Amino acid sequence: MLKLIKYDFRRSRELILVFFAIAVLLHIAIWLSNSTMGANLISLHVVTYVFLGLGVIFVCANTYSNNIRFYHRRLLPVHAIYTILSPLLLFLLLLIAMAAVALLHLGIYILIYSADFIPVNFWSVVLNNMPKLIWAAIFSTIMVLFSLTVAGCFRFRGRLWVGLAVFIVLQNILSYLEWLLFGNYFAGLEDAFRFEVETSSAGSGGIVLSNISTSYWPVTFEIVIAAAMFYVMTRLLATAIQD
What we know:
By secondary structure, the chain is mainly α. The chain has helices at residues 2-33, 39-69, 71-74, 80-113, 122-152, 159-182, 187-192, 217-241, and strands at 195-199, 207-211. The protein folds into 2 domains: 1-115; 118-243, no CATH class. The protein contains 8 helices and 2 strands, in the order αααααααββα. Strand 1 (195-199) and strand 2 form a beta hairpin. The radius of gyration is 20 Å and the shape is globular.
């Protein structure tokens, strides 16, 4: 498995470096164009991290798509599940790298502006919601890989559009089911952002973050769906695509 991840990383590292370099340059440009710390500055940085996250998902999807299309990769004597896990674990490692960059970024801002801009309960909210956000990113990536696997079963040009259609339909069906069961669309992702921003004269920067109680049933539902998608993908990889 480690050799597969290393191989996937070496083949995609230029694209990975491009996305990280663009993100760093955007962060620098945002910082230089804003002289003071404020909500506008923080919002622009958050948008940049969202862009980087989408880039990481694209790297994972592109790596997986190449793995199931290239003949020499399909000849490797590995179980179908490793073909799925390799780009998915690479995605997880890149998420960890993103978190490290974000922590370094925050540390630099604390050195420059002091820690007064950090809301009260910031770290407790982050520790509570970050695992949910990571799971939401992983679940979205699994849906992308599932869509690419279904598209890989077809042997005509333009099958990428089949994968896109499968992803859109799958996402809408799952969102509708979660709305019926839990009252929210894509409830697992929404749980990651369930906190309130309150003003307080005693808090750092006058802002307090407070968690809102959440249910873990949406995440449990998504884990079951992810396991089902994993099973279908392994069957497709072992039969239709590998033939």
